[in-house]
Amino acid sequence: MMELFLNDNLGKISAEVNESPRAQAILILAHGAGAGMHHPFMHSMAQRLADMDITTIRFNFPYMEQGRKSPGSPKANIETWKMVAEYIHNMYPGFPVFLSGKSYGGRMASHLLSAEPLEYVKGIVYFGFPLHAPGKDSKDRADHLKTLQIPQLFLQGSNDKLANIHLIKEVLLELPNPTLEEVSDADHSFNVPKKSGKTKSEIMEFLSSTAASWIKDHLD
């Protein structure tokens, strides 16, 4: 565990590194809107990726660090993303860096890279891009993704109420360098019904191995 001081306005945040002794790349993983970096999904994903030669860093947004439930203004969280990315890039010079997030965390990363491309970031991984509110299908939240020239990996459940899979596919048709990996029957948390015959561990293995393989294919 480590603490990062951002600035006088944002204060300090917690971060944790799952380091791989054979690291080929660095992945920075941001949490979703309602759960911090210690959520079981975050912890499991970070460890699995580290086991696959991807050093993974998790961090809390300031609102989560301060015990607040609402993310508040995106501005502070996008600013946090930038400062964390720059800190980690300096901490691991020479390593390819990828940004990533569960739901909200990934969307904030995409807004950062849309507003200010970072030359050392090789790609972005979305563990469930939150395209719209439940029951309010729309593609508006994806408009800025068209400006991203780096590779983007979308790991999406086919039963995600925050991302109609048909709309996700339409969005990808408009992007310069996208990849979609669909998880059949999975919801926004990547849970699947028992009748699917899949276990949570199997889903996590698919997500982590797919992300790791994609990252290794985009190191240059």
UniProtKB/TrEMBL annotation:
Residues 24-216 form the KANL3/Tex30 alpha/beta hydrolase-like domain. It comes from the Bacteria. Pfam families: Abhydrolase_11. InterPro entries: AB_hydrolase_fold, KANL3/Tex30_Abhydrolase, NSL3/Tex30. This is KANL3/Tex30 alpha/beta hydrolase-like domain-containing protein. The lineage of its organism: Bacteria, Pseudomonadati, Bacteroidota, Cytophagia, Cytophagales.
